Amino acid sequence: MLRYLPFLLVLALWIYAFIDCLNTPEEEVKGLPKVVWIIIVLLFGELLIGPIAWLAAGKVRGGNPAGRWTAPDDNPAFLASLKEENKKDEALLKDWEADLRRREEELKRRERGED
Questions:
Q1: Taking a C-beta distance cutoff of 8 angstroms, is the pair 16, 41 a contact?
Q2: Residue 11 has pLDDT above 80, yes or no
Q3: pTM score above 0.70
Q4: Rounded to whole angstroms, how far apart are CA atoms 84 and 71?
Q5: How many percent of the chain have pLDDT more than 70?
Q6: What are the beta bridge partners of residue 59?
Q7: What 3 state SS string does the chain have?
Q8: Which of 20, 33, 42, 68 is found 20 to 30 A from 86 (Cα to Cα)?
């Protein structure tokens, strides 16, 4: 079983680099066109040159390019939407509480025979 491990690791890296290259938007590919990177990864994958080259130099890494999502606690728009939802929920809760009080009063009046 151990003799297959190096082959499986090479295959896993090859597949990972290929899928990563396919899923990377064109504007995040650096150095060469995306199609050329795909060919390099496929042709030189068995030697690990293609996948390692892609992972090391083919893609813009780090940072947060404009248009990408951020963590919710870093996103001001998301935090503002939470505040708005909280206000709506509080108003709804107040309405429910008022309705419950009204129904309880109505029920008490019926029990006393006022209706």
A1: no
A2: yes
A3: no
A4: 19
A5: 90
A6: 29
A7: CHHHHHHHHHHHHHHHHHHHHHHCCHHHECCCCHHHHHHHHHHCCCCCHHHHHHHHHHECCCCCCCCCCCCHHHCHHHHHHHHHHHHHHHHHHHHHHHHHHHHHHHHHHHHHCCC
A8: 68
